[in-house]
Amino acid sequence: MPEVKSHKPGTFSWTDLATTDVASAKKFYGELFGWAAEDQPMPPGQGTYALAKVKGKSVAGIAGMMEQQKKAGMPPHWTAYFTVQDVSAATQKASSLGAKIVMEPLDVMDVGRMAAIEDPTGAAFAIWQAKKHIGTELLQEPGTISWVELESRDVDKAGGFYSKLFGWSAKVQDMGGGKKYTVFFDGPEMRAGLMAPEPKAPPMPAHWNVYFQVDSADAIAKRAASLKAKTLVPPTDIPNMGRFAFFFDPQGAMFSVFQPMRK
Fold it and tell me: Fewer Cβ close by (within 10 Å): the C or N end of the chain?
């Protein structure tokens, strides 16, 4: 796909990593996905923010965790950002729908405006109003964001919240064996997924899973293991869709990869 110039409201448009070791994370993902990292100037005391590049285009961010996050025992994590037209209005709407506002709307220098939110089921995400930075500048290439998926034990509450917040419609799919998977749509365009965790899965708070596109999930799994990542779900087929896998990076952040089915 050619360079992306803008993102429609309600689109998963960006992700960044909050980690305990920025240098090691840049090295790991650089070797895994072929990313080139470009450090960005930040205000004093706000640490390092690196833009991950594919073919010279920004596709993700890597930053150090804030001290309050470390003190709260929060593990390294990827955050999903959704584009909105007006961050202040979207934040007020989220609050009226029962969300917790973790970070009130703020300007990120001259690149955009954001807020951090925790949905009514406990999953954290961010919203982004673009200025100079639109979000990812490239899609449908290896190493770019591919999909985003919410795991929550209260599927009905989560589904209702995001449908009202972003104007998404929800379509529930029967995956067999009693499993259900909800796909959120904006008109004909798919926006995100939603599912309940496996009944036997270890307890985990509601969270968004970020997927990166790859040419081969199996090759990435081998490379990730060689780079000391932990495999959570080995490469697995999704009938008529492709192949996916889940990992923990060496600092403990969970991420996923998706290999689209070849047409």
Answer: C
Side-chain half-sphere of 95: how many Cα atoms within 13 Å? 13
Do 28 and 123 fall within a single domain?
A: yes
The number of distinct structural domains making up the chain is: 2
Measure Cα distances from 73 to 68, 76, 89, 124, 143 in Å. 9, 10, 31, 15, 29
Quickly tell me which residue has 């995956």 as its tokens: 175
Residues 18 and 125 occupy one common structural domain: yes
Answer whether 216's CB lies under 8 Å from 224's CB. Answer: no
Same domain for 100 and 20: yes
DSSP one-letter string for 105-135: EEEETTTEEEEEEE-TTS-EEEEEEESS--S
3-class secondary-structure state, position 157:
helix
196 token code pair: 């309940």
Best CA proximity match to 137, nearest among 56, 203, 212: 56
pLDDT at position 188 over 60: yes
The model carries a pTM of: 0.95
Taking only the tens place, the pLDDT of each residue in 61-82 is: 999 988 777 777 888 999 999 9
Which tens digits make up the pLDDT trace of 82-112? 999 999 999 999 999 999 999 999 999 899 9
Q: Encoding tokens for residue 150?
A: 């919410």
Q: Given a cut of 80, is residue 135 above it in pLDDT? A: yes
Q: CATH number of the domain at 190, please.
A: 3.10.180.10
